[in-house]
Structure formats: C-alpha cells, structure tokens
C-alpha cells in the first residue's frame, strides 16, 4: 500500500529506535526524566521561547494551551477550517467552558483582520457578551493544503492582538514544514505567537508526541493542565528520545516537499484530476476528481483497492500527504495507479 492519507503514518527511524532503547529515564511527573527535560530544552531553544512541555498529542497540546490562555466563559477566535475547531472534539468547550468563535478561513489559511475584528463586541463592558481571550492560527494549514502563513500576515495579527490586549496561539502541528518550505528559521515564525504547539508525530516521524512552547509562567500552567487531563506520563523519555532526533532532523522535510511537487505536477498532467499546483507549498497535495464516471468517494475506494490510500477531506476534496515513509518510486507508482484508474472503462 502506498500510504498517502497522512504523515501520521510515519514510523520511527532506525536511529530513533536506537535512541529510545538507550535513553536515560526517570519519573517525568517529578520532573526527573533527563531525556524529556532535554527534549523540552531543545524545543524551547529551537522555537525561541522560554520553556516547553512534552504532550501526548497535538490535541492535548492545543487544549491545554487554550485553557491556559482563556478563562471559563471567554471565547477563542479560531478558523472555521482549523483542526482545533473541526477535529478536536470541542475540548475547549467541554473541559474549559470556553466558546469557539469560528472565523471564515481564506483559501490560503489566513483569517482576515476585519473578520477577527468582528469577533470583538462593540462594548466589551456589556455583561451579556463573551469576551475574546485568544486568537488561534494554524501554520501550515492542514485543510488549506499545507499552506504557509506569510510572515507579514503573522506580524499583522500580532499587532492586532496587541492593540486588543489578547494573546495569539499557533497550532503549528506542521510549523517545521512552514519553516523548511519558506526557508525561514522556525523561531522567526514562532516569534509572532505567545504559544505554539507542534507535532513530533507527523512529518517529523517520531512515534508519539507534541510540544507546547511559550513563557515559563504559561508553561507552568500548561503542565498543571496536562496533569489534570491525565497527560502526566512517567518514564516518557522513552518516546522523548525520538522527539529529540525528530527536531534535529527536521531539515529532511524538504524531501517530502519535493515529492509533493512531483506528485502534483504528475497529477496536473492527467485528464480527470484537478490539482491546484500553485497551492502546493509543503507536503500536502489537495485534488479533486473531475472525471464524471467517479465520485470522490468511489475514486478513493478504487484507488485503495489498487494499492493507493488517499484521505477524504469532505465536499469532493481528496488529500495526499507526503512523508518520510515514501520514496520517488512510490510517487511514480502512485501516478501510474491514478492514470490506470482514469484510463479504465
Ligand atoms: C494532527 C493535527 C493536530 C492534532 O494532533 P494529534 O497529535 O493528532 O492530536 C492539530 N492540529 C493540526 C493542524 C494537525 O494537523
């Protein structure tokens, strides 16, 4: 099977497995796992923040971040196409008593300042309104095809948030894809957000884990919330060891980006497939099937039978995600399979 559904299918590399076997361990709830501590230091330094906290998942990383920033009864301004809004089971409402205010998402992943502006009540002292306490951005943007938010845009949001006196959280599940794709150091991207979460378990190919980074005081709150939610783990260095290598080897994502372009270029030459080539900036290729003999669902099902797995993102959109588990031959094979399906009668 050529697995293009997600970069979460990556397996730990042989050097990660070695590091996991050899990692010095301790009880991390006591703050005594040396490998987890090393990973947290590395994450904080790499993203240019004071402190970091290891998390079992990106979902918990976002949830603890939102809860640390936003009090009960407040609202978070979040894109209506954001992972936080769509795929995280409403955690901030369920656990934090926080209202999500979905903001229209532009095709390139941006939330317009004018739309964010509308999230603020005319009279913030009027007791009937929930008060905005946080802006959440997503970079790269998953459902917008791995789009990288431009640095100028991030600066604008930062300035807007400052005039309104509220923090910015970046769901940077794939922030290293943004850094590699734009050729911008990851800390320069992170500088515009008060907090960032990023996934070690996607293209970076660690088996488990995400990091939250931010100020020391913020991370102390996040750590308490992690414990409350059941995410305090013990000899967690056994997975943190893979996370250290994941960060050290992040530059390797460039290969995934090159292969995403190869795949998208190949697909753009096929009659019956529509792919927005210009929108392929990182490791994600979004496409549609225009051949009337197929629906997007029947196409995905046939591809699966033929040995090619792609993700169904809804409303006719299919997604192919490139990752470390693939090589150039897989791209050729994937294109062959797609071409064969389209040629069949
Ligand atoms: C995968 C993902 C998450 C959640 O991470 P999990 O580890 O799967 O919980 C959050 N945000 C974005 C943009 C993601 O792609």
TrEMBL record:
Its cofactor is pyridoxal 5'-phosphate. Residues 3-288 form the Aromatic amino acid beta-eliminating lyase/threonine aldolase domain. Keywords: Pyridoxal phosphate. The keyword Transmembrane helix does not apply. Pfam families: Beta_elim_lyase. The keyword Cell cycle does not apply. PANTHER family: L-THREONINE ALDOLASE (PTHR48097:SF9), L-THREONINE ALDOLASE-RELATED (PTHR48097). Belongs to the threonine aldolase family. This is GntG family PLP-dependent aldolase.
């Amino acid at each position: 099977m050529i697995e293009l559904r997600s970069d979460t299918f990556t397996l730990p590399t042989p050097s990660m497995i070695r590091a996991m076997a050899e990692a010095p361990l301790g009880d991390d709830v006591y703050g005594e796992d040396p490998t987890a501590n090393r990973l947290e230091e590395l994450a904080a330094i790499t993203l240019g923040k004071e402190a970091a906290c290891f998390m079992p998942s990106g979902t918990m990383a976002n949830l603890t971040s939102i809860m640390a920033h936003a009090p009960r009864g407040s609202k978070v301004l979040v894109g209506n196409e954001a992972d936080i809004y769509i795929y995280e089971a409403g955690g901030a409402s369920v656990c934090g008593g926080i209202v999500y205010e979905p903001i229209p998402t532009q095709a390139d992943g941006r939330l317009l300042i004018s739309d964010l502006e509308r999230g603020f009540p005319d009279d913030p002292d009027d007791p009937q309104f929930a008060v905005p306490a946080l802006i959440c951005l997503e970079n790269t943007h998953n459902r917008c095809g791995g789009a990288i938010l431009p640095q100028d845009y991030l600066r604008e949001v930062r300035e807007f948030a400052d005039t309104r006196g509220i923090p910015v959280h970046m769901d940077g599940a794939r922030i290293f894809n943004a850094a590699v794709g734009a050729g911008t150091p990851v800390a320069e991207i992170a500088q515009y957000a008060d907090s960032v979460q990023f996934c070690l378990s996607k293209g970076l190919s660690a088996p488990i884990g995400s990091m939250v980074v931010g100020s020391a005081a913020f991370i102390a709150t996040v750590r308490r919330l992690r414990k409350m939610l059941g995410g305090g783990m013990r000899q967690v260095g056994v997975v943190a060891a893979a996370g250290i290598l994941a960060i050290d080897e992040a530059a390797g994502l460039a290969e995934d980006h090159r292969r995403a372009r190869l795949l998208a270029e190949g697909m753009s030459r096929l009659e019956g497939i529509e792919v927005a080539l210009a929108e392929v900036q990182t490791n994600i290729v979004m496409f549609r099937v225009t051949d009337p003999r197929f629906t997007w669902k029947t196409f995905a099902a046939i591809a699966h039978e033929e040995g090619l797995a792609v993700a169904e993102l809804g409303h006719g959109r299919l997604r192919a995600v490139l990752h470390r588990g693939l090589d150039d031959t897989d791209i050729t094979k994937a294109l062959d399979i797609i071409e064969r399906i389209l040629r069949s009668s």
